Amino acid sequence: MKILVVGGGGREHAIITSIAKSSKVTKIYCAPGNAGIAELAECVDIGVMEFDKLVDFAKKEAVDLAVVAPDDPLVAGAVDAFEAAGIRAFGPRANAAIIEGSKAFSKDLMKKYNIPTAAYENFTDAESALAYLETASFPIVLKADGLALGKGVLICKDLEEAKAGVKEIMLDKHFGNAGNTMVIEEFMTGREVSVLAFCDGTTIKPMTSAQDHKRAQDGDQGLNTGGMGTFSPSPFYTDEIADYCMENIYKPTMAAMKAEKREFKGVLFCGLMITPQGVKVLEYNARFGDPEAQVVLPRMKNDIIDVFEACIDGTLDQVELEFEDNAAVCVVLASDGYPVSYKKGYPISGLETFKDKEGYYVFHAGTKFENGKVVTNGGRVLGVTATGKDLHEARANAYKATGWITFENKYMRHDIGKAIDEC
């Protein structure tokens, strides 16, 4: 099979690393890819939103399967474009990807179908939002309705902060048109868990659990980011909680989307909060998480192409997902100053250290080739992942491996997975 993966970050590098293990695959293309992906796939200079060019390329190269990984092209209808051209594609169509594309839609869906989530209200104008805040309890959460690179969520501790947040999202358009509508919801406390699940429109099969670290600085301080590191599995996500989620969240979500004539095929990402009142949905995403994919996929035993095809064909009920009985931790190496401002173009050394080291991975996120060298080309530069017999060993291995990489303005959190010390 010839495979085309759309995207160019750490998630896509992790997906391609899994695809490359499949005996069914003879050729992998990636648009646009990055310096690390280029070792496994032929990178094609086409942007993720250039649907016509992507489709033309796939036709020309007789691509058997297109895998659309990032949120923007999924929400905008990349899968629809491939399918319209007769090309098999993995990922939800636009009418299903709205579950991530609009937080207001997903909150209304949960309310309608009694899926547990935080209490909330939707607003389309700043005046109404500000009036509502005068009567609200704090802390409170403000969410830009649309896609905002994982950063469109503000946790406000008091009325003054919340008013400033409304201005930032709805009036100053800090997140662009994503802030035309805003969700205000109650602040939940508890343990966050990410569960990615394969879906074929009817059947949903959860993968192993993970936990992300969204804040830029140690101790969960600083601004929200796309994710600074992850660990898998989450020791807080017990079998009992998994059973509850299957019956009260996962299956009802699939059924709800089907009832709304928005059949969901692909990967559904459930961001969960284990609260004192039970498990509730924080958010849905319509694709593999980043950097969750970097700890979940290295632990998966299945041939990923078999799973992708089962999701497309509606035969996922015949697939038994299997994961290694181990653990994985990913530490993101970022450019100092991320997520606000940072410099690019610094040479990266030490990448060759990972070659032939079993259980160690370096997933490229923001890198490119320049004058024959791999240089930094983004806020999140690399995801250093290591496995171990348990989370403590995996964490020690991952942090050891971060020392193998050097580049100017390298920055990382030093407390990824620290929560496991409480277990």
Model description:
There is one protein chain. The protein is built from twelve helices and 22 strands. The chain has four domains: 92 residues, Rossmann fold (3-Layer(aba) Sandwich), CATH 3.40.50; 56 residues, Dna Ligase, domain 1; 128 residues, ATP-grasp fold, B domain (D-amino Acid Aminotransferase, Chain A, domain 1); 96 residues, Glycinamide Ribonucleotide Synthetase, Chain A, domain 4, CATH 3.90.600. It is α+β, with helices and mostly antiparallel strands and 423 residues long. The radius of gyration is 21 Å and the shape is globular. Strands 10, 11, 14, 15, 16, 17, 18, 21 and 22 form a nine-stranded antiparallel β-sheet that branches. Strands 3-2-1-4-5 form a five-stranded parallel β-sheet, with helices on both faces. It has a four-stranded antiparallel β-sheet with strand order 6-9-7-8, with helices on both faces. A hairpin with a 3-residue loop joins β10 and β11. The model has no long low-confidence stretch (mean pLDDT 96). The termini are far apart. α7 packs antiparallel against α8.
